[in-house]
């Protein structure tokens, strides 16, 4: 009898609690091709599953969002150096393993084409159409001298800080770090 | 023989994960509730992925047919 009462009370508690949203928040920290592929496959897949998707690009991840066609002015010497050293956009990313002076990365890209696996460019286009939100870490950009004006043309891209990411992550039922 | 009428066929042959479900999800709003679409895929992942996608999004996979080199998936839009 008491057990049933307790169960009812617990059920009521669970029903009253607002559950986490059907949302995925992913931190894209790494700067390698393979990890970005994984991130974009998960992001587009989650959007297809009807989830809201938020990607937060930070540290090495931010360089992948640079557009090869755009340039930002007003950088100092060190910032310019970072600009040269870091990959300008997702087509310049390399594999985390087996890069072998470029041969491995070229081979993977060739295989992807042969096996009709979507390129990062195609996946960004798809993610944009699906409403995937991209935040770029303000501090990472500032640290490495990157600016929003050199980032890719993407429908939902803006800079943000850790609080934005944490607020999203807290509401999300799934959180990833890549 | 299946007892439903196919309203549309979506040809995603040659596409790899996650494109078959991504493209299907983008097509869903164009399909009337209650209608059945046939999806053609060559990605073996589709066999497991479509039922999982349907379970999460509230759609229904009526049938998954495997032919040599081709997978046919029948999806009914539920909502």
Helix-strand blueprint:
The complex is a heterodimer of chains A (178) and B (79).
Chain A: H1 2-16, E1 21-28, H2 33-48, E2 52-57, H3 77-85, H4 103-114, H5 120-129, E3 133-137, H6 138-144, E4 157-160, H7 162-171, E5 172-177
Parallel strand pairs in A: 1-2, 1-5, 2-3, 3-4
Chain B: E1 6-12, H1 19-27, E2 36-41, H2 46-57, E3 60-67, E4 70-76
Parallel strand pairs in B: 1-2
Antiparallel strand pairs in B: 2-4, 3-4
Structure write-up:
The complex is a heterodimer of chains A (178) and B (79). Chain A is α/β, with parallel strands linked by helices and 178 residues long. In chain A, strand 3, helix 6 (138-144) and strand 4 (157-160) form a beta-alpha-beta unit. The model of chain A has no long low-confidence stretch (mean pLDDT 92). In chain A, 44% of the residues lie in helices and 16% in strands. The longest helix of chain A is centred in the first third of the chain and has 16 residues, at 33-48. Chain A has helices spanning 2-16, 33-48, 77-85, 103-114, 120-129, 138-144, 162-171, and strands at residues 21-28, 52-57, 133-137, 157-160, 172-177. Chain B has helices at residues 19-27, 46-57, and strands at 6-12, 36-41, 60-67, 70-76. Chain B is globular, with a radius of gyration of 11 Å. Helix content of chain B is 27%, strand content 35%. In chain B, strand 1 (6-12), helix 1 and strand 2 form a beta-alpha-beta unit. Chain B has a single domain, classed as Translation Initiation Factor IF3, CATH 3.30.110.40. Chain B has 79 residues and is α+β, with helices and mostly antiparallel strands. Chain B is built from two helices and four strands. At the A-B interface, helix 2 of A face helix 1 and helix 2 of B.
